[in-house]
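hey so u asked for the seq, here:
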Amino acid sequence: MKRREKLIKLLRLSGLCGGFALFALLLLPGALLIFFGDSNSSVENGERIIPPKSIHVYRTALGTVEEIDFEEYVKGVVAGEMPSNFAEEALKAQAVAARTYSLSKVIRSGDGGYPAAHPNAPLCDGTHCQVYRSPSELESLKGSAWMKDGYKKITEAVEDTAGVLMYYNGELAYQALFHSSSGGKTENSEDVFVSAVPYLRSVESNYEDAATHKNEKTSLTYTALAETLNKKYPDRYTGNFTPSAIKIRDRTDGGRVNIIQIGNATYSGSEIREALGLKSANFSISKEPYNIVFTTNGYGHGVGMSQYGANGMAEAGFDYKEILKHYYTGVSVY
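ran it, structure tokens below
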């Protein structure tokens, strides 16, 4: 019964759940195998989900909803989220992560309940979901020469992994998160967000030599620091403090700041990152007579796949499945 319910839901998402077609599919022997795969075939473990043919995406600039072919949407996301000069296996890993993440948003949204950021659609084209750019937008941004080279490379990576998703214990890996670079180690999900997700565990990211955001420094006066934090977080007040009253109290498994004390108040590293516009919560501090300097490594929240780490692994000879299984602990990829 569970399989039948899942099939019906996916048929609805695919636009195929109509009258005779649904009746026939539910009765035909082996119909479920079309959608989920034969348990005796080469599929690894669990049921295989076939993504819908098309999805609805909220186009932020226009305030409209557009129906887009699902695999074409994945191409637009990979083009929007990862440089085309990255290695082929890294682009494939990004394609699978993007496909998994977007399908999970479609499934979880059901027939409605969309957030205010993208009304009337389960996905948007911005950073709230994943950055998506249509072919015409990409040509306008990057030029016709890039379309013949960069977009062609991305298209091949997406098509080579068409329909491939990540699963955990036989279920879709709903939180296929990724970020630009980790600074050497990724984060446990609960150290950045609310929930502990079993496949979003802190792992080493040893192939980030080419990452662009390293040892970036942000300097501001102690007065500016206090004013910024008091305005951003009015529920906490730093009070008057000296440099000695600024201390990093705790770090996460991934090395990011967990708790920092500034005067009378305490903050998470993520709160400091947001308030000061830092690239990462993976920072150290140095205290000068009049200024404090934050030195950051990595770019992004640090949970899930490091894109620069994935590219480094690809250049070192790892294939896309090995990359994904490294950054998403315990997943299957098929």
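The two ends are 23 Å apart (CA to CA). Residues 257 and 269 are 5 Å apart (CA to CA).
lmk if thats what u needed
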